[in-house]
Amino acid sequence: MELYFKALIEPAADVIEAFNRWENDEALLPLIHPYKDEAGLKQRSNISRDELIGRLEHQRVYLMYLDEQLIGEMNYMVDPDMLYKKETGTAWIGITIGEPDGRGKGFGFKAIEFLEEQIKRQGLKRIGLGVFEFNKQAISLYKKLGYKEIGYIEDFTFWKGKKWGDIRMEKYLDS
To answer: In this protein, which residues make up the domain named N-acetyltransferase (predicted)?
Structure first.
């Protein structure tokens, strides 16, 4: 099995279909977006080709492939409003391993290492991220990769009948 990454430049129909499948996967929903309440968690949406192209105007998106199967995506944007600690030149990252075949196999570790290298190549020195406090697997991964907790936002998302916080983390990249 070969894991490789490819920049998303022009979203093809199969990529849009995969993004929409992941955006509506009940196992992934609570991990990738914050929700105010149970009703929000139950809403489903689809992203259009134009919306995905619009995302590419302010985000760099990379697709994760296992052999020839698209299994996930990762992205970053520079200096977005959601940064906990406003420091110019900070990349905000996100990662989704959308296909069950890609989860729990260490691909997230390799994907973030790849993403960090792309961010370094752009000349950025810091990465920020948010992870919901119930996502213990992701928290463990980020800590293993050297991310440090810098903040906590209470009552950030709804899941399993209650509100959960968002842990904000950062990592400074070596030159």
So the answer is: 14-174
Q: Over the stretch 39-69, which tens digit does the pLDDT of each residue have?
A: 887 887 889 999 999 999 999 999 999 999 9
| CATH among 3.90.1150.10, 3.10.690.10, 3.40.630.30, 1.10.10.60 for 3-172 | 3.40.630.30
User: Is the pTM value of this prediction over 0.70?
Assistant: yes
